[in-house]
Amino acid sequence: TMFGGKSTELIRRITRYEIVGMTVQVFGPSIDTRYSKDRITSHDKLQREANYVRSVQELEDKLSPSTQVIGIDEVQFFESSIIETCERYANQGKIVIAAGLLKDFRDEYFPFSDGKKTMSDMLKAADTSTILTAICNAKNGNGDICGSDATRVQRFIDGQVVPYDSPVVQVGGKESYAPRCR
User: What are the residues facing 111 on neighbouring strands?
Assistant: First the structure.
């Protein structure tokens, strides 16, 4: 879910490989420039240099043949061919780490930009997966924060919960989304 530490975890994992001397490249979708156009940035402002690209093809064009570790942030914003691309590089012996939203604000698997597949297909293709949760910050009747594990996200516009039929893709942060438990 959002605010669960996906970008932070991606940066942490990439850094581990850099420390041991492996060649790393990090990519993000050009649709997500909330914080920077050349750095992935977590909501807690942890940053890492990255190549922002418009498509899977552009990612492949910018990937150096000597790269050993490929990091991809906000993978759900790419076309569904990103799944096969990740598999191909993994089959070549490269380490591929992809971070993204599993589900959208409707609690449905996030569709890739071309609508042909969803993040559930990415899960099926992955060797391993780590599902991070946030902390539900909904307030109860006494004004206390819930504090349960948040496995979902709720979207708002002007402080109001958006209708179910709202567009799926809307890049935003704390002004537009909140972590929620079941």
Answer: 118
- Go through 148-169 and write b for each residue having 16 or more CB atoms within 10 A of its CB, e for each that does not: ebbbbbbbeeeeeebeeeeeee
Reported as type and span, the H/E element at residue 72 is strand 69-72
**Which pTM was predicted?**
0.88
* Rounded Cα distance, 6 and 1, in Å: 8
Per-residue pLDDT of the chain (182 residues; tens, 9 = 90+): 888 889 899 999 999 999 999 999 999 998 866 656 676 766 677 778 899 999 999 999 999 999 999 999 999 999 999 999 999 999 999 999 999 999 988 899 999 999 999 999 999 999 999 999 999 989 888 889 999 999 998 888 877 787 677 777 666 556 678 899 98
Which H or E run includes 19?
A: helix 6-19
Structure-token pair, residue 19: 């420390």
- Out of 49, 74, 79, 87, pick the active-site residue: 74
Three-class HEC string of 41-70: ECCCCCEEECEEECCHHHHHHHCCCCCCEE
Could you confirm whether 84 is annotated as catalytic? no
